[in-house]
């Protein structure tokens, strides 16, 4: 498998590193607009191959898309991240132009590529990538829910005082502080609903901490996070590479699913060699349905700014 990662910044480099360490890709191409930056990151990462025990080849390119030719998967992380106090939506003006331009260049070199959109505001950027490229809906995946669900599991395990591997939980809806819908009623600890262990007050605290998970890190770091975002992307790429049919919440173009149309929003998706192989419609409670509808309204309002 050949994977291109556009944007060799914090998230792009972290994602390339995890893909390399997981050792399922033959070639990883890092592309950045900053002269020499992607080449430098690629060289630094390649010098970890004997230390980390991987065989992937990592190459860098400054704005040269010919090196990305015949990629199976391309990850778009190019753009600006938010600073403390900023919302993801405030990035739209700059990032929309970048995402559109990059998606078009990627397809010109790799007509069969599956695109994973990471740049924020992610749901709107994934929607824009659909509109700009006209690719079939299975081939554009917005990454947000995989990260938000990992953050939800972290918060749940902390509250439950148990290992994260004992917890299963999912966040659907938009990838924004107000749009995320952590499905607390469906979260389980070893098949037992977490609602059996946690008071309503603690449940509410966990949900809130999950929704502001990115903002909390942005405040601490002075910029947005990269390890968990990179790891989440690498898991989506691995599911495609291994055709594993693993389910992740991803921002998918909805055409009637969940009663929604003409919007990219986080819903459970089966990921395999064709990208989004199935959008899974799970039964939602009335409360969950209302939250998802509100979330869709919020994302649609951001889409209207395009
Ligand atoms: P960063 O600033 O560290 O890296 C971005 C890189 O993109 C820079 O190296 C920059 O030179 C490059 N770039 C800018 N324009 C480009 C172009 N036209 N072509 C190629 N490269 C270009 O930012 P970071 O932290 O890596 O974040 C990247 C994006 O990912 C941001 O929009 C951020 O908000 C988003 N993000 C999304 C997450 C998600 O869950 N969907 C999680 C974390 C970040």
From TrEMBL:
The keyword Transferase does not apply. Transmembrane segments: none annotated. Substrate binds at residues 82, 88, 120, 151. Residues 147-297 form the Lactate/malate dehydrogenase C-terminal domain. InterPro entries: L-lactate/malate_DH, Lactate/malate_DH_C, Lactate/malate_DH_N, Lactate_DH/Glyco_Ohase_4_C, Malate_DH_type3, NAD(P)-bd_dom_sf. GO terms for molecular function: L-lactate dehydrogenase (NAD+) activity. SUPFAM superfamilies: LDH C-terminal domain-like, NAD(P)-binding Rossmann-fold domains. Residues 1-142 form the Lactate/malate dehydrogenase N-terminal domain. GO terms for biological process: lactate metabolic process; tricarboxylic acid cycle. The active site is at 175 (proton acceptor). Keywords: NAD, Oxidoreductase, Tricarboxylic acid cycle. NAD(+) binds at residues 7-12, 32, 95, 118-120. Belongs to the LDH/MDH superfamily. This is Malate dehydrogenase. It comes from Draconibacterium aestuarii.
